[in-house]
Amino acid sequence: MKKIVQNHVLRADCGNRGQRGFTLVEISVVIGLVSLLSIMVFRFYFQSNRAQTSLIEGLQMQNTIVTGVNKVLREVRLGTEFIIPDLSEQSTVLVFSDFENNTVAIFPVLNKELTKEENENIYDLYRYKAVTKDFDLSSPVHVPANLALLCSDISDINFRLANAKSLTVTFSFKKGNKSYQTVTEGALMNSGDVK
Amino acid sequence: MRKRKGFTLLEICIGMLLLGGVLVIYLQSMQSSKKKNEYYSEHFIASIMAAKVVEACFQEADINLYGIEALGLVDKDGQGLTFSTPVTDGQTVFFKAPEITLEQHPHLYSMFSKDFMLDINSEKDAKQYFTLNTAFAWKAATGAGKFNFYCNFPGSVLRKEPHSTFAFPEAKLEKKLVERFFEEKNKNLGTIISSPGAREVALSTGRIYFSTSSLLADKPFTEAFATAEKLAAEPHAPTSVKYYQATELYFGIARDILDLMLFLKPEVERLSKDLDKIDSMNLRTKTRLQVFIQRSGLALDKLRQVFLISVNEAASRYRAQMQSSTSLKSQRLMIEKCLSMHRLMIVTADFSDGVFVSDNAYNIIRSEYSLLLATLARYFADKDQSIVRLAAQEKRFADDNMIKDRYFVCDLVYQLFSEIAALKAKLPDPDPGVPDPDLSVIGQPSGNGTAAGAITWAQDQMNGGSGKGLNVNIGKRICDDPKAWNDWNLAFVSTAYNGSKGELLVGSAIDSYSAWESKGKVKTTGRPPAGAIMYTAASAGNPYGHIFIATGKSDESGDPIVITTGSSGSFDGVREMTLSQVVSWASGKYLGYVSPE
User: What is the span of the domain harbouring residue B565?
Assistant: First the structure.
């Protein structure tokens, strides 16, 4: 009886001030709607963010591919004769002589950090130039200045000669959830002879 | 009654509709963004792949002038074609090594198997070039995807304007013609030959005669040929430096001759066309000019022989070098040169008389070429498909007699040799008693001991020749002093025979005659053969007698033509004249001749 009276008093007070409270149902509906809206807004936000990240990753990857492919082709164009691989063979390593008769090698090196991140073997591609006039076969010395990084994020690479003068390179790149494969061709520009 | 207000069903429906609408727009936008992202990736890969195809086309065109045709991108008449092919599983030549397969290239394969087509459209353009549009077309999620790569390639039938680098001293030509052809001084050509047509013929003859003599007497040229012949005779391995050296020497000789022939092409054409224009000239001038036309024809013919020998040698040597080479680059370079030389041999096979021992040179050359092409196709089958395609294409060209139509250098050489053959046919047949000139003695201080060498060397001391024969008695040469051989007739004949005949190493011409006479070698009847040593008797004015050399030719009346030195009382230098003229001039009776052995 006392409880009923108290409630009545409360309602009477509210009514007196022209105000009223929310029922539990109303509050529940409002909280439900706000939660739904929040979920949707957050989802929109994260999806947009993910799409943007994906786009940026794609562009970064394309940039890596263009730069890497161009760097490899630029090195090959300085060459005069391929040493490895032989015709009709393919190799993950390319060795050739350049126009100064130096021996140039292009080879992948495992990147342990990226390999751990990607859970797959990821390599960096390097170029090393053995300068013939300074190179002593009996006591070879590594010259750090002759080593250059050509590109990263490579999951696989293959060199194959299309002919004695031209090279086909198959690249596989991987970063995050982005994977690309591409095939390109480059030729020795110094044939060493005048027609 | 308290007024209680909530959302009506209509309000909720509108709210839900608006929310749904926003959601749909957002999802569509996300989907579209995803598709575009995918399209950009595909477009990017397509651009790299198109660049690879174009590079492959350039590589094919690098070794094969008609490489684009060999790839099947233009038809055999050089007209454009449309070429369309899938690219996976080795369905096109551009992606055969390596092939794009599901196992090897899963990402590329998944992309290229989506109705991905390589479309190459070739369109004949102006100036013998055509535009190649290399396009990749695919069924992109955003709609049709396409990437185009335009570039120009040489057309199938490529014609060039040939240019010779041969430098001819044109400014001195008229003066040289007047002095050497017509033995006049301080006159211009117009006063000697009044007819403009005949004058042009004389000028053309001069260009041919002086340029060919200059090349054949050129020390580096003759030494190169001698060195090449010497090295070729030695047993060097095809991988050795000396073998390569001989090959390059032959190649260089052929190139130099071709360069000269290119310069002479219009002159040979004019000579062949206007030869009858000299008929109106006076007899002396005409005879002099005819002598030089004949010599020019002989020199051209000699150049033809040296050219064919050099081309034949270079072709067989490049073939041997290619077969022995372990370097891929050398093999590839050698193929280009080897095929070029063989092509020249095929188109000149009809003009190879006097060069090859066999009478069936044409068939031998063609079968050798077929064998070479078959060997190339077999050897490179698993190594270099562009060479296999090149060999197949060359075989078709050879079988269909299209070599000279396809290669402008071959066509040019064919035209040159045709012109030389036409000119040769118009010239009178050389006297059968006259041997071919021995070009090895041209520009030398003495002959080489043979009859042909003696005549050629003696002629080389005449006007128009090098005049480098050395009179060791006074240390002079005609090129330095026109009087170098005046009154030295015995020394001249002895030097022509390189001092090889003891009967000439005596005090005077008449002593030499006596030496032969005592051995019963002197003949007084019959026509003196080429290189015969001839004598006139001593006289009051000439107590030593006179000695001279027979050319083997005779004039229209049968009077033998000889080569003799001059004297202080007659003329300077060395000349050709008839025996009657010598007898009259030397004032001693004709004693007879000794045949060369």
Answer: 439-594
The answer to whether residue A161 is domain-embedded is yes
**pLDDT over 50 (residue A73):** yes
Q: What is the DSSP code string of B225-251? A: HHHHHHHHHS---TTSHHHHHHHHHHH
Pick the residue of B55, B116, B255, B334 with the most A CBs within 10 A to test the interface with A by mutation: B55
Amino acid at B361: A
Q: Is residue B348 situated within a structural domain?
A: yes
Whether residues B44 and A166 touch (CB distance < 8 A) is answered with no
Q: Tell me whether strands B533-536 and B476-477 are parallel, antiparallel or unpaired.
A: unpaired
Q: How far is CA B512 from CA A67, B153, B308, B593, in A?
A: 89, 74, 43, 11
Report how many domains make up chain B: 3
Residues B150 and B193 in one domain: no
Q: What share of chain B is helix, strand, coil (3-state, %, to 5)?
A: 55, 15, 35
B272 with B379, same domain? Answer: yes
Do B315 and B191 lie in a common domain? yes
- Would an 8 Å CB–CB cutoff place A57 in contact with chain B? no
- Helix (H/G/I), strand (E/B), else coil: B437: coil
Pair type for strands B117-124 and B82-86: antiparallel
- Going by C-alpha positions, the residue among A143, A160, A152 that lies closest to residue A102 is A143
> Pick from B33, B107, B328: which is nearest to A87 by CB?
B328
Read off the DSSP letter of residue B96: B
Residues B277 and B145 in one domain: no
Q: Determine, yes or no, domain membership for B557.
A: yes
Is 0.90 exceeded by the ipTM?
no
- CA–CA–CA angle B560, B584, B592 (5° rounding): 50
What residues in B contact A187, CB-CB < 8 Å? 55, 58-59, 62
Question: Is A53 inside any structural domain?
Answer: yes
Determine whether the interchain pair A187/B62 forms a contact, defined as Cβ–Cβ distance below 8 Å.
yes
Q: Which residues contact B195 (CB under 8 A, 6 or more apart)?
A: B277, B280, B281
- pLDDT computed for residue B46 by the predictor: 87
* Bond prior to B154 in cis (omega within 30° of 0): no
Q: Is residue A57 part of a domain?
A: yes
Partner residue facing A160 (CB), from B98, B106, B108 = B98
Element (H, E) at B499: none
The answer to whether A40 faces chain B, any CB pair under 8 Å, is yes
pLDDT of A106 reads 95
Of A69-83, B283-297, B420-434, minimum mean pLDDT range: B420-434
Q: Tell me whether residues B52 and A87 touch, CB distance under 8 A.
A: no
* Each residue's pLDDT tens digit, B113-172: 877 888 888 877 665 677 888 888 888 777 778 888 888 876 655 566 667 777 777 778
* CB proximity A45 to B under 8 Å: no
Number of neighbours of residue B532 by Cβ within 10 angstroms: 25
Across the interface, do A51 and B34 touch by the CB < 8 Å criterion? Answer: yes
Range of the domain at A118: 49-187
Q: Which of A90, A164, A186 sits opposite B329 (nearest CB)?
A: A164
Residue B3 pLDDT exceeds 80: no
pLDDT (0 to 100) of residue B532: 92
Selecting from B49, B333, B383 the residue whose C-beta is nearest the C-beta of A87 gives: B383
Name the domain boundary from B154, B181, B216.
B154
Residue B151 · residue B54 · CB < 8 Å = yes
Q: Are residues B278 and B420 in the same domain?
A: yes
Q: Are A106 and A125 in contact (CB under 8 A)?
A: yes
Q: Do A128 and A147 meet the contact criterion of CB atoms below 8 Å apart?
A: yes
Q: Is residue B6 part of a domain?
A: no
A193 lies in a domain? no
Determine, for residues A81 and B327 on separate chains, whether the beta-carbon distance falls below 8 Å.
yes
Looking at the domain assignment, is residue B216 inside a domain? Answer: yes
Q: Residue B80 above 80 pLDDT?
A: no
Residue B516's pLDDT band, with cuts at 50, 70 and 90, is: very high
